[in-house]
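pinging the channel bc i need a second pair of eyes. not urgent but kinda urgent?? the chain im working w is below, pasted from the shared doc
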Amino acid sequence: MLQILSATVPIFLIVAIGYVLTRRGMFKRADMTVLSKYVVKVALPLLVFVNVSGRRVDEILNPTYLLTYAGAAMVMFALAFGYARIFGRSAHRATFMAMGMAGTNNGFIGFPVFLILFAEIAGAAIGMDMLVDNFLIIPLTLFLAEQAAGTGSLRVRIVSTARGVLLHPMVVAIVAAMVLNTAGITVPDVLDRTLTLLAQTSSGVALFTVGGMLVGLRPKGMVSDIAVTVVGKLLVMPAVAIGLVVGLVTLGLPDLSPQFRAAAVLTCALPTYSILPALADPYGETDVATASMMLSTVLSFLTLTGWMLVLSAVGWM
């Protein structure tokens, strides 16, 4: 229990510090946009690059791990989208409820948690999580949102989505690291230390930014939609992941080490994307997206701790 609290308490203390300092006026909520851009476009890609470079391909592209997260995400995406449409919600509401229930805050909360719990596999785990995020969940969300808006032809939407995916800094970092690994090229020590120093700023700044982003949020919208999204994200998705970890191995896929099993489940137990409100805003779904992001972030302190206890009980942590 003490080990679990030592992993979760510092993370949410930093989130709380970001909230308090922004609330008291030392920072503006608009400043969080700049910090968030730095984390997403500079620090986090470098952190993934540093952790992925030098690893074997089978460590970076573990099929069981990838299919666990991708499978759980698609199950939750389908459940949320189906729920919303059955109960008469708009296509845009359904799309962003689905993203809120399927997507996880790997960069801003997942990486700091993993660095504390299992530092040796954190880079590989988050690298695979980011592949699923950037090649599957986010593109599918944007495609469905544009489809619902009816803007542009199908070809234009596909090309635009593909371009955004391939040029995302996180994807570029992963691909660059894999190319260097395949070619047997190592980064010079001076450059490696420089990249590492920048990369190490990601965790603290990311968590601080999450706290600052919570200031001034006024969640509105349908309470039932928010509750369904948050409960599905924090409680149902990790349970689905446990079933997939066991089921995929039973079907003959390679088994995962206990650390990777725990990482796969905890990935699915993380709160939803911090970028969810920004992505939902152009389509008029800011209120439910913002409330879902805020509530899942706050409640995840309790649920993450609970899932760590479960994983410890079954011997995966």
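so The domain at 2-313 is CATH 1.20.1530.20 (Na+/H+ antiporter like fold). and The first helix runs from residue 2 to 23. — does that match what u expected or am i reading it wrong
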